[in-house]
Amino acid sequence: MMWQDIPTDKGICIKYDESLSYSVPPFAGVFGALYDLEDYKNLKKNKEKLNNYKLLSLKIPVDDTGRFKIPESKVVKYFNMIGANLPANIGLALTPMDMDEHSFEKAGQSNTDAVSEALEQYWGASGVSSLLFSSDKSGSTALKASILVDSTMLYPIYRQFERWINYRLKLINTTTTFRVEIINVTEQTHTDVLDRYMKVFNSGVGKSYVAALMGYDFYDVKSLSYLEDDVLG
Question: Do residues 127 and 93 touch, judged by C-beta distance below 8 A?
Fold first, then answer.
């Protein structure tokens, strides 16, 4: 069955996206980018490790007929002498041939940090601005817009909690009824939302909203109002 009733006295179902009838992790789209990011980090780590290793080759001279000019005993003797004085990250080899090094770096292109590129792709896939976590970039307008977009993703979840709490309150047999409202605000948008409600409050309405945004309990506001208005005048 697509829909299942959950006993309200025993459970609650909160969905990240109410439009879907199946379960999907909220940030499932970034899993691939996460795997790529880990791969690039490992590649960079392995590259840095390889940069600490060297290989020395001793070329044995040969004559026109291909025979070694130095006796084998002397070759081995000097090979062992040199090897005994080398650190562990430097290897030693004997060869009658020339040894060449081949590099597979990108030809004709600037050297870029693949880890940084992978990280940028990750933030792009998640929909979260990299400005939130980057110290080498700036842009207040883009950052503020990104925070607003991220915050709005929480508001549908707020509404689900509201409906469940208010439904539970309706089940309570009392002469006084209450309704719970969760303000559309997050830790990052608190200042802007408070300023907006302060403008409304200055017009004579919205005291409870301002008090809630300031973190005051409802009964504290009621008691303070009585103390300030009726007692202290």
Answer: no
What Rg do the C-alpha atoms of the chain give, in angstroms?
Answer: 35
Report how far residue 166's alpha carbon sits from residue 125's, in angstroms, rounded to the nearest whole number. Answer: 36
Residue 62 three-state SS: strand
pLDDT winner (highest mean) among 47-51, 106-110, 165-169? 165-169
**Residue 91 bridge partners (DSSP):** 55
Local structure of residue 186 (DSSP, 8 states):
-
How far apart are the two ends of the chain, measured CA to CA in Å?
62
User: Which residues lie below 8 Å from residue 181, measured CB to CB, with a gap of 6+?
Assistant: 162
Q: How far apart are CA 40 and CA 43, in angstroms?
A: 5
* CA pair distance 147, 135, nearest whole angstrom: 16
Question: Distance between CA atoms of 32 and 38, rounded to whole angstroms?
Answer: 10
The pLDDT, as a whole number, for residue 101 is: 67
Q: Is the dihedral of CA 18, 11, 162, 171 positive or negative?
A: positive
* Torsions phi, psi for 56 (to 5 deg): -100, 135
| 89-122 pLDDT, tens digit each | 788 888 877 777 656 665 555 556 777 777 777 7
Higher pLDDT, 210 or 1: 210
Nearest 5°: the CA angle 150, 205, 195 is 40
Question: Under DSSP, is residue 46 helix (H, G, I), strand (E, B) or coil?
Answer: helix
Say which residue the tokens 């002498």 belong to. Answer: 81
